[in-house]
Amino acid sequence: MDFPVTFHIFGKDILLHPITETAGIFVGMRYYTFLKRNDREKFSNVNSLLILIAATLGALIGSHTIGSLERPDDLMKTSDLWAYIWLNNTIVGGLAGGLIGVEIMKKIIGKKESTGDRMVYPLIVAMFIGRIGCFFTGVYEETYGLPTSSMLGMDLGDHINRHPVALYEMLFLLLLFISLKYFQKMYTYKSGVLFQIFMLSYFSFRFLLDFIKPTYNIILGLSIIQLVCISIIIYYIYLLKKNRHEIIRSR
């Protein structure tokens, strides 16, 4: 297989990655709309729209902010700061920024209940589809792993066997989807717990995954993404510990 995978459309070569990212967002939003339509929660359309806007804006800011801070040396040397920020993004920053945006908007509109549970499966599906494009881009974007001599290594376009971290993440997301469905079937729980488990699981996975990715160490041998992951992990351990008595095995 030749990396990156492209399609020749209207005389131009188009990377698969932006196509899968767009498809992931579209499918995720349709899935979310379907779940919301069948949700029993009474919540006004105006407030739902405000929270969605806050989540989107927070995700956009967080994604590009954390993405541009991954390599401080490159950030300091760039001749076009805004172009550099726009071209660098990360799902870790997007999830963290979206979380902050939602929490701020909930404070503004006075909503205390969690709104995240119905977003869990659409997010997993959207991320899975997006990672397909990451894999087929190979080493031509910052979504590849370190060289490895293990049987899992793959040539992603530079004739070096590397960890196919996009495939690892796709497998993790698939298992997470199945595990959360099982949890949802077997337990009753307070609203918001499903989202908390999702966030704790994903950020824990990303913290570990970044040890086999080329990263710029900021402090204590950790990257900016890993530092964000630690903050989110601590936050959700606290929330789940507080809500542990609300999780009851139903079968």
UniProtKB/TrEMBL annotation:
Q: Domain of life here?
A: Bacteria
Arranged from A to Z, the UniProt key words for this protein are: Cell membrane, Membrane, Transferase, Transmembrane, Transmembrane helix
| InterPro entries, sorted | Lgt
Note one Pfam family from the annotation: LGT
Q: Where is the signal peptide?
A: none
Membrane spanning stretches: 14-34, 46-69, 81-100, 120-140, 160-180, 192-212, 218-239
Q: Mind telling me which PANTHER family this protein's record contains? A: PHOSPHATIDYLGLYCEROL--PROLIPOPROTEIN DIACYLGLYCERYL TRANSFERASE, PROLIPOPROTEIN DIACYLGLYCERYL TRANSFERASE
Its family remark reads:
Belongs to the Lgt family.
Protein name per the record: Prolipoprotein diacylglyceryltransferase
Which species? Answer: Chryseobacterium profundimaris
